Amino acid sequence: MVEQNYFKFSNSVIVAPLIAVLSIWTVYWIELRFHMNLNDYGVSPRTLEGLRGVLFSPFIHGSLEHLYNNTIPLAVLMASLFYFYRKVAIKTLVLGIFFAGLITWLIGRPSYHIGASGVIYFLASFIFFKGIFTKYYRLVALSLMVVFIYGSLLWYIFPIKDGISWEGHLGGFIMGLVLAFFLKSPVPTANKFAWEQEDYNEEEDEFLKHFDENGNFIELTEETPLEKEDSIKITYRYKENSKE
User: Fold this and answer.
1) Do residues 103 and 171 lie in contact, with contact meaning Cβ atoms separated by under 8 Å?
2) Triad 47, 119, 21: Cα angle to 5°
3) Count of CB atoms within 10 A of residue 86's CB?
4) What predicted TM-score, i.e. pTM, was given to this entire model?
């Protein structure tokens, strides 16, 4: 697979982040419009009812600030996933959301854990570690960008601030690392120059024919067909004058 075909813009790069952002904002609008509180649909650790939060909790937010803080990272990281890893993006997203929520359900404190931050931590972790594991220069550069922009998020996988579901963050971070390691994704191959090809032959290289064995440049001139095939050779013979 060549590089141009691998990094190819598709509608999913716009559609997927747009659907995600519209979904979380729509749910929040419904709560305000109909005076509802959907926190009960969040992850409630180690309860049978709380398992529904594994699927529903990413769409529920406790405040406008909470919603706003999750919107831009979710859109940016989702677009990055579908652009750089489009062949495994949907599979990665589904597995990541499900198992990150399940980890939160297993290790979380007795409370309702809500918000898309677990998904954000999953996406950031997956994109970072996947780029490092592939060792492909563009994907490594993407990993470094994730660290530069969202590196400070790492602290919030620890219980350093009240009111934040560090368990959800940790679950997302763990699943991003696990899927980056185990989930196979095709890696692009950069275009090669002629001399990098396996069947390259130096003797047939037109450029190298302009150099001799010592590396000196020599000017090659092409002979015309007439000079090469139909040239006429004239021979002059001189005779001495004989004396009578």
Assistant:
1) yes
2) 115
3) 18
4) 0.76
What is the pLDDT at residue 226?
A: 45
Q: Are 31 and 59 in contact (CB under 8 A)?
A: no
Token pair for 66: 């909470």
Is the separation of the CB atoms in 113 and 160 below 8 Å? no
Yes or no: say if 53 and 114 are a contact pair by the CB < 8 Å rule. yes
Judged by DSSP in three states, 43 sits in strand
φ, ψ of residue 2 in degrees (nearest 5): -85, 165
Q: SS3 for 211?
A: strand
Strands (E), 12-167: none
- Distance, in Å, from the CA atom of 29 to the CA atom of 35, rounded to the nearest integer, reads 10
Confidence of residue 161 (pLDDT cuts 50, 70, 90): confident
Cα–Cα distance, 166 to 46 (Å, whole number) = 16
DSSP letter for 57, please: G
Is residue 61 within 8 Å of 116, Cβ to Cβ? Answer: yes
Cβ count near 240 (within 10 Å): 5
Give me 30's structure tokens: 């419904």
Q: Is 76 helix (H, G, I), strand (E, B) or coil?
A: helix
Which tens digits make up the pLDDT trace of 49-107? Answer: 999 999 999 999 999 999 999 999 999 999 999 999 988 999 999 999 999 999 999 99
In this structure, what DSSP letter does residue 202 have? Answer: G
Backbone angles phi, psi at 18, to 5 degrees: -65, -45
Tell me which amino acid residue 158 is.
Answer: F
